[in-house]
Amino acid sequence: MAGTIHIDLFSTLDGVMQAPGARDEDPENGFAYGGWQAPIDDDAVGEDVMAGIERMDALLLGRRTYDIFAAYWPVYEGPGSQIARKFNAIPKYVASRGTPALDWEGSQLLGPDLASAVAELRERHDEVHVVGSVDFARTLVAEGLFDVLHLWVYPIVLGTGKRLFPENGPARGLRLLEPPVAGPQGALLLRYGPGGEVATADMG
């Protein structure tokens, strides 16, 4: 049985996904709200994230997220060090148009043909997770190269920043895989799978 590709993302209510975890995570285009997720501490989010980490057997990352993780997790020894142990132990695949030095142990560059590379990962692993990597995730969703989109939506509006669904992106249907889950601080978990093209009709 082929493995599955999971995309894990945190989003504001207006769809911004840029730099949720730290102030200096991704200041591209003058983004001033880095670390917007951190003040909204929600136990339901943490439990779901940890469950996903326990299941995954590979990471698939965009170049920017890979560089952040590679500088952080190999030397991390604080609370939640089980995350570091898992990330350091499993294979890491990196999507990049260049030929970056991938010094984090267990890392390798994804092949240039994205569809073929994803198919190979499905054969090689049971559950591959794309964490963050908004630009790369946008490509995977647009091309239907994923199985589950885990989307935590937070009760905050930023107005500007990178989004998974840009204004000029392709129309795309999604399919709800299970009922939504609400956390005690107002975060909402939505799990979607590919759903095909968008249809239109008149009401009534």
Automatic annotation (TrEMBL):
What InterPro entries does the database record attribute to this sequence? DHFR-like_dom_sf, RibDG_C
Q: What GO annotations for molecular function exist for this entry?
A: 5-amino-6-(5-phosphoribosylamino)uracil reductase activity
Source organism per entry reads Microbacterium lushaniae
Alphabetical list of Pfam families matching this protein: RibD_C (PF01872)
Protein name (database record):
Deaminase
Bacterial bifunctional deaminase-reductase C-terminal domain boundaries? 5-172
Q: Which GO terms describe its biological process?
A: riboflavin biosynthetic process
